[in-house]
Amino acid sequence: MNFGSAKGKDQIMKRCNTFATAGLIASAWAATALGAPSQYEVFQWTATATGGNWSDVANWSYKGIGDEAYSAPAPRAPGEAADRISFESANGVYTVTLSDDVTVNSASMIKGTAANPTWTTIDLNGHFLTLKDYSYACINPYAQGSTARDFKWCYSTYIFKNGRVQINGGLRAGNTTNSGLQCGGFVFDNASYTGDSGAWCNSTRVFVLNGSVWTNTAYLKTSVTGSLFLANPLLCVSNANSRFVSPQYDVDVSGNSAGFYVLDGAFAETKRLRIGAVDKAVGCFVRVDDGTLVARGDLSIGSDDLDGVSGSTLEVAGASARIVATNDTFGLVVCEGVGAKFKFEVPRTGYLESDGGTPR
């Protein structure tokens, strides 16, 4: 599938239009001191109209320790463990390109809008980016995103491509108390990411594409606040050699219309997998389409307290689609509500036996 990142592209491809989740979160930021170094310097990206090279000091303004305002150009490019990075100077769709391995403290992003999204691409250019320990607070985490089943990115999204990323604080999308990299959504495009997701908002959309590998290092959970079920999260792993690897850690994506996709040759492996595991979550689904989902624990879709609202769906399509249970006590739960759905698309030639036998 083609997940083009051009501003006008709204979806993966036409055949996927009917499958997605709704909503995404905003990601304006307010810095806090929780978990952060006692002294740090802040570098703000200024080339939001054209993009440019990370190492070019002309692309950064600077606010040193004790400074109240930014000045330009920066005295150096950011690259020290106590440096904080801000992409908050303006909305825009632009690319920041690395020319060396870089280690900094944190990164933050301005809130995008439907008319003027903020899509910041970090082209790693074969290098290694490390974001260390830090904390930020997201000001308005529930305001943005599509309300249809599509593959639109959220209005504020980081795109990491062509290299390796390690985020010690994890992908934090809209949670107001936890440390990590926070924004509306994340895209990994031919990139390797090591780290956890911490706490998502119940609207985050994350895509693992084009041979990317996410090695998850902690319990992945969606943070649902009160009754705010409006935003709806999505985790999509797609294209050959793309992998989401979490065999030792549970994955828990919660909220209305929560979705989990494994598509077009992709592979996902989890411990326990729960999609929509909150009180009265509706319309939750898992779709495996020519991909492989390995469950080392139970697979549960939807809430067990639906109380008369729409149920959940498990969809399996494509000749090479597989759901593999590795636990003798594996349990599959698709919560009913007013009707659970199991959809199996049988290819014209039938499915092959796992040992390569004849169609059946």
Concise summary:
Helix content is 0%, strand content 37%. It is built from no helices and 30 strands. The relative contact order is 0.11.
Describe the structure.
This protein has strands at 29-31, 41-45, 52-53, 60-63, 83-87, 92-97, 102-104, 106-109, 118-123, 128-131, 136-138, 156-167, 185-194, 199-201, 205-209, 213-215, 220-223, 234-238, 243-246, 251-253, 259-263, 267-270, 273-275, 285-289, 292-295, 299-301, 313-317, 322-325, 332-334, 341-344. With 360 residues, it is mostly beta strands. It has an 18-stranded parallel beta sheet that branches. Strands 14-17-20-23-26-29 form a 6-stranded parallel beta sheet, with no helix packed on it.
Which tags fit this structure?
6-stranded parallel beta sheet; 30 strands; 0% helix; 360 residues; mainly beta; disordered C terminus; elongated
Q: Averaged pLDDT, please?
A: 76
Q: Which range best describes the helical content: under 10%, 10-25%, 25-40%, 40-55%, 55-70% or over 70%?
A: under 10%
Radius of gyration: 20 Å
Bulk shape: elongated
Please write out the topology:
Blueprint: E1 29-31, E2 41-45, E3 52-53, E4 60-63, E5 83-87, E6 92-97, E7 102-104, E8 106-109, E9 118-123, E10 128-131, E11 136-138, E12 156-167, E13 185-194, E14 199-201, E15 205-209, E16 213-215, E17 220-223, E18 234-238, E19 243-246, E20 251-253, E21 259-263, E22 267-270, E23 273-275, E24 285-289, E25 292-295, E26 299-301, E27 313-317, E28 322-325, E29 332-334, E30 341-344
Parallel strand pairs: 2-5, 3-6, 5-8, 6-9, 7-10, 9-12, 10-12, 12-13, 13-15, 13-16, 14-17, 15-18, 16-19, 17-20, 18-21, 19-22, 20-23, 21-24, 22-25, 23-26, 24-27, 25-28, 26-29, 27-30
Antiparallel strand pairs: 1-11, 2-4
